[in-house]
Design brief:
By secondary structure, the protein is of the alpha/beta class. The chain has a domain of 204 residues: FAD/NAD(P)-binding domain. Helix content is 36%, strand content 26%. It contains 13 helices and 19 strands. The strands form four sheets. Strands 6-5-14-15-16-13-17 form a seven-stranded mixed beta sheet. Helix 11 runs antiparallel to helix 12. The chain is globular, with a radius of gyration of 21 Å. Bound molecules: flavin-adenine dinucleotide (FAD).
């Protein structure tokens, strides 16, 4: 098996955190191998999965700047000055995030962002291995096993000194670490889920509604939001409870099961949005329904042999739009601690000490917004206010 240098590190997952961390470490002279289960999205196009676009805030941009990735990312970002609230009666109201355009957030396309970050990671010297799904790790022999799903699942073994888990909420590395040590893992799922739909461009190629805003249709215990994409589309996300509350006229994914059901709901509750989504039935029937949950871990690392970051360490509900921003901050912190301390176990402890309380605080805030929104269903003004604070 390959012999690695003292500054070698193996990252699992070339998603948002994996690609950014690979860049930051390669730029600091680390020898970085990244193993990603999917094919190269730059060749295959981005696989439609979850959350097509994301709100990028200053926390995330600051991390991108440190990797020299901010300009390339911002070239495709759409500014969101504030929330455009769509009331039941069709009125709209733009509520700015700050005094002027120095206080805004940005809508970025997950696929484009990932591709930019992969290019930058490769340019910095990181080696990217696609179709390499981590299926197991032996921490005694320091051997990781990867399956190549593109060629029938052939499994190869690879030696490692340290594995970094940037493999998302369902992290296979976390699972492997849990077999060796108790990470104190706890997950809490919400009884809400989400579905993505699309508003296409206008016939002249422009945006159909105000592009520089995050659109919200708050309706108490459920809602819809829309974020702009640079190709003049909007990604709409419908959040609904899993179970309807018919007494209080609250729909759920158990009553809204088909595209036709969804169209009827939109016509009734979001008529202005319904008119903008010609392929609502198709989108609803084809796109997966996403679950929402929070992952808590007491321990993010296994001495110097493995460490987790991003969603693999602290997945959260999206009601503050901070999961990616928080994952990017993790990358900067981990790269800094690895530079500071030659002892990797010490670096990982310091990383966890710095980042775990921050992640917990953001998870809590994201959940609080959800809980308050869910529980205060009798107060329309209050509900509206809370929904506005979601982003
Ligand atoms: P991921 O982006 O999930 O990347 C994990 C990578 O690992 C993927 O490429 C995957 O293919 C790969 N992988 C998985 N398993 C393996 C394996 N076994 N072997 C090898 N590779 C593997 N955050 C924001 O900041 N702003 C927002 O507006 C926002 N909106 C959101 C809306 C929704 C509906 C959801 C669900 C999330 C939202 N988030 C948002 C959160 C954000 O999506 C995540 O926090 C972010 O993607 C975490 O990045 P990550 O790199 O840790 O994980």
């Amino acid at each position: 098996m390959t012999q690695h240098t003292d500054k070698h590190i193996t990252i699992i997952g070339a998603g948002l955190a994996g690609a950014l961390l690979a860049t930051l470490l390669a730029q600091r002279g680390w020898e970085v191998d990244v193993h990603e289960m999917r094919g190269d999205p730059r060749l295959l196009g981005y696989e439609r999965g979850r959350s097509i676009n994301l709100a990028l805030a200053e926390r995330g941009r600051n991390a991108l700047r440190q990797a020299g990735a901010d300009d390339a990312v911002m070239a495709q970002a759409v500014m969101m000055r504030g929330r455009m609230v769509h009331f039941r009666d069709g009125r709209t109201d733009l509520q700015r995030y700050g005094r002027d355009d120095s206080e805004v957030i940005w809508s970025v396309h997950r696929g484009e962002l990932n591709q930019v970050l992969l290019d930058i990671a490769e340019a910095a010297g990181a080696r990217l291995h696609f179709n390499q799904r981590l299926v197991g790790a032996d921490f005694d022999t320091r051997t990781a096993r990867f399956a190549d799903d593109a060629s029938g699942g052939a499994v190869t073994e690879m030696a490692f000194r340290t594995l970094v888990g940037a493999d998302g909420a369902g992290s296979a590395l976390r699972k492997a670490m849990s077999a060796s040590t108790d990470l104190g893992e706890r997950s809490k799922f919400l009884n809400h889920a989400y579905k993505e739909l699309e508003i296409p461009p206008a016939s002249d190629g422009g945006f159909l509604i105000e592009p520089n805003a995050l659109h919200i249709w708050p309706r108490g215990r459920y809602m819809c939001i829309a974020l702009p994409n640079d190709e003049s589309t909007f990604t709409v996300t419908l959040f609904l409870p899993n179970e309807a509350d018919l007494e209080n006229d609250v729909p759920g994914f158990d009553t809204v099961q088909t595209g036709a059901d969804a169209r009827a709901l939109f016509d009734r509750q979001f008529p202005d949005a319904s008119r903008l989504i010609p392929h609502l039935e198709r989108d609803f029937d084809t796109n997966p329904t996403g679950v929402l949950g929070t992952l808590y871990l007491e321990h993010w690392h296994l001495d110097e042999r493995a460490v987790l970051l991003g969603d693999a360490a602290h997945a959260m509900v999206p009601f503050h739009g901070q999961g990616m921003n928080c994952a990017f901050e993790d990358c900067v912190a981990l790269a800094r601690h690895l530079e500071r301390s030659p002892d990797r176990a010490e670096a990982f402890s310091a990383f966890q000490r710095e980042r775990l309380p921050n992640a917990r605080a953001i998870q809590h805030m994201a959940l609080e917004n959800y809980l308050e929104m869910r529980d205060r269903v009798d107060d329309d003004d209050y509900l509206l206010q809370r929904a506005l604070e979601l982003r």
